[in-house]
Amino acid sequence: MRSSDFVEPETTCSDKNCPYHGDLRVHGRRFEGVVTSAKAHKTVAVAWTRFRRLKKYDRFIKDRTKVLAHNPECVNAKLGDNVIIYETRPISRWKRFVVLRKA
Question: Model's pTM, two decimal places?
């Protein structure tokens, strides 16, 4: 993990699932994506595109991955922001990522 990702934000929060001010630990993979939805409370949907090769047709297709990530109050990512997310323990039924900072 890069130490430049862990620059603490200026604002503080009282969120227990915050990697900076709470007790949530990050591990695993790091992804960069765009916030596609920020309607849910403390949750954002993050999507990123990738190219996948189809061996049978010797072509590439554009694929999109979309995950839900916890959005701490101190980060406060909004719709359209580029963000960096890290894998973490399961926070809820669908959330296994946390937003670390805006890219």
Answer: 0.89
- Residue 43 scores a pLDDT above 80: yes
Q: Is 6 a member of any domain?
A: no
Residues 6 or more apart whose Cβ sits within 8 Å of residue 73? 11, 13, 14, 15, 18, 42
Separation CA 97–CA 77 (nearest Å): 14
Question: Which residues are registered as beta bridge partners of 99?
Answer: 85
Helix (H, G, I), strand (E, B) or coil at 5: helix
The pLDDT of 4-21, averaged and rounded, is 90
**Tokens describing residue 12:** 């503080």
Quick one: tokens of 79?
Answer: 């719709």
What pLDDT is stored for residue 16 in this prediction? 95
Supply the mean pLDDT for the chain: 94
In a domain, 58, yes or no: yes
Residue-range definition of the domain harbouring residue 38: 11-102
